[in-house]
């Protein structure tokens, strides 16, 4: 089974990416994001896409420009996650056949992202909006809009966010920090999945 959790591997290197990717998939985390401010991120994306094949959706985070969208697509990426709402980035992402998850914080940004073709919304920083902010914004979002909370959302407060209508989460430092082994990441991933399953009951 897979879960609505995006694994954010900020700082990962190409050499360690395949083993960590395998550990994540084994735990049920099948959407993997390599932020572009990581070392050699396109090489890591290519390595993950190659070793995980159709078992995971692999792509990039911190994507800010159309040129970066093209580079990720050429590396085999399937999902683009951004910290902001850039309509040109969203449109180019969809034109290249990838999922688009732009960062939004206000109703204006959320509706603009959806109008441009976003597949879902990344509420960021989640710690600033809080579950109450998401709950308030949900009133103006089209029915069926998927919203993932990122930054300040994790195992300790999954329940609060789910109660506020969060559809999923992006998990970064609680899951992976540079230098961690695949075994470490796999163990953390398993605990995070357990916490999510408990909160989502």
UniProtKB/TrEMBL annotation:
Its EC number is 4.1.2.21. Coiled coil: none annotated. It is an enzyme of class 4 (lyase). It holds the Pfam family Aldolase. InterPro entries: Aldlse_KDPG_KHG (IPR000887), Aldolase_TIM (IPR013785). GO terms for molecular function: 2-dehydro-3-deoxy-6-phosphogalactonate aldolase activity. Gene3D superfamilies: Aldolase class I. Pathway: Carbohydrate acid metabolism. Keywords: Carbohydrate metabolism, Lyase. Homotrimer. Belongs to the KHG/KDPG aldolase family. PANTHER family: 2-DEHYDRO-3-DEOXY-6-PHOSPHOGALACTONATE ALDOLASE-RELATED, 2-KETO-3-DEOXY-6-PHOSPHOGLUCONATE ALDOLASE. This is 2-dehydro-3-deoxy-6-phosphogalactonate aldolase. It comes from Sulfitobacter sediminilitoris. The lineage of its organism: Bacteria, Pseudomonadati, Pseudomonadota, Alphaproteobacteria, Rhodobacterales.
């Amino acid at each position: 089974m897979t879960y609505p959790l995006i694994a954010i591997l900020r700082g990962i290197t190409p050499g360690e990416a395949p083993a960590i990717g395998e550990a994540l998939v084994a735990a049920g985390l099948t959407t993997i994001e390599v932020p572009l401010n990581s070392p050699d991120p396109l090489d890591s994306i290519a390595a993950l896409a190659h070793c995980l094949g159709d078992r995971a959706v692999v792509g990039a985070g911190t994507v800010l420009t159309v040129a970066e969208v093209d580079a990720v697509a050429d590396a085999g990426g399937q999902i683009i996650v951004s910290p902001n709402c850039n309509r040109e980035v969203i449109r180019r992402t969809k034109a290249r056949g990838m999922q688009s998850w732009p960062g939004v914080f206000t109703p204006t940004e959320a509706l603009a992202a959806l109008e441009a073709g976003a597949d879902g919304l990344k509420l960021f920083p989640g710690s600033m909006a809080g579950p109450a902010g998401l709950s308030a914004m949900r009133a103006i979002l089209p029915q069926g809009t998927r919203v993932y909370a990122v930054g300040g959302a994790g195992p300790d407060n999954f329940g609060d966010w789910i109660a506020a209508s969060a559809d999923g989460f992006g998990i970064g430092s609680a899951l992976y920090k540079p230098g961690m082994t695949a075994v470490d990441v796999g163990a953390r991933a398993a605990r995070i999945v357990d916490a999510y399953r408990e909160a989502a009951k």
